[in-house]
Amino acid sequence: MVRFEDISKVYPAYRGKPGVNALQGIDFAIPRGSITGVIGRSGAGKSSLVRLINGLEKPTTGRVIVDGRDISALAGHELRLAQRSIGMIFQHFNLLSSRTAAANIALPLEIAGWPKAEIRGRVAELLALVGIADKHDRYPSELSGGQKQRVGIARALATRPSVLLSDEATSALDPQTTRAILDLLANINRELGVTIVLITHEMSVVRQLAKEVVVLDSGRVVEKGHVADIFTHPKHPITQSFLAEVIGDSLPVSLASRLVQEPLASGHAVIRVQVRGAGAGNTLVARLARELGLDVSLLSARIDEIGGQHVGSLTLGIPGGESAATRALAFLSQHQISAERLGYVA
Amino acid sequence: MSPELINLIIQATGESLFMVSIAALLGTAFGLPIGVFLATSRKGELFAAPAVNAMLGIVVNATRSTPFIILVVAIIPFTRLVAGTSIGSTAAIVPLTIASTPFIARLVEAAIREVDAGLIETASSFGASPLQIVFKVLIPEALPGLLLALTLAVVSLLGYSAMVGAVGGGGLGDLGIRYGYQRFMPEMMLAVVVVLIALVQLVQSAGDYLARRVNRRLRHR
After folding, report:
1. pTM to 2 decimal places
2. Interface contact A87-B116, CB threshold 8 A
């Protein structure tokens, strides 16, 4: 388990640059065996936060407890011993170009002083675990991005850590490779029980992998909880903006350019419906048509599943002018479905 | 050219190679750790000691800015102390080493600084000690650059070694000055220059080849 206790991190002023409050009032726990996403814009303090966990950075105030030990109080040899139980993977993989895949994976074991014969066996095991057993003797320059990150993951897991930190590990990969790497991380979490903390600026990564999410903005935790709860009921504007990236609640350009605010007798009223929760959007259009007798047209829609809950937005066109639109809105609010009138199109 | 003269050239080549190789060896032995320290001891770095770094930097710069011929003469008492004599090829190794050490240190510093800082962070993240980082990460990753630096140092040493004739150091440069210039034997001058050119070509090609061999950053077959 990782617990942050009232953490602040201040980078002091240096050579004319003003000091920075990177983190303030951070106080939460990451449960053992969980996959926790830390999401925030660049400069939100994600990197500082994750580097507190493995002691690469020290908090200005507060404590960081990892597996019952205050890692922020350790130094020298003690700290280095503790760091062996915390693995880390990086956006740019950070493999040694002078070592083969196998030798890269062996590095943390050499540093920990493992005997050569044991290292050989462990490395073979790890290469198989990450699915690149055939790349044993390849140098990083001969590997693809996804393969490099697999080597990085194997290296991070070499000393059997209880925590795996991921620092934007998929941000340099294409969507397909990202998916494969995230699947691998999910498998590792399931099979080895390793706690995974992933920092990212991509909502899609959190959605696909994490069960818990912490939203960071300007060095503070603005929201945290189960992914499904946070993203079905986002409160903070930052969370809402991350969500918007996934559900894409911007109007199609052709529609937005024709939108007017004054009611038109002919044409359609444009209504946007927010979909949140299990099965919320499934029968909506059919019920509007059946119960109100409206020929509802679907102008744009995006529904996604986050943590088993439907999240998305539908843009509907309602014929019949202002009165029909008002009736539709009343019907939706009666069923606790949030909706808004965006305007009218001819 | 008479056999005596050819023998002189062979003997002088031997002296040059002796001086340059021993000085390069000693210069690397001293220059490598100094260079690694210079590359890792600024504020916030692995062996952070900004004051020592700054002082060492000044010493290195001072040594490098002293013209070699002045250095050779100025340290004669020290040379006598170390080598027992201030004349001959063995004595010449002392100023050659002292001149090449700061040169190699700066080249090593530049090569080590080329290593991605992310690799230092990575090694720290799995609990590597500063010395482990130097020997397992920095030096292996900088090896192609280090080999090229050493090649450059050897080539410069060949040039420096021509000047130690001034204190009876012997070698090719000395031969060229005494026979080619003072005795006005242009064919001797030419022979010395040709041998020096061949040596530099050889050293540079060998260095380039080795650096390419150990460079795994680019795919090669």
Report:
1. 0.85
2. no
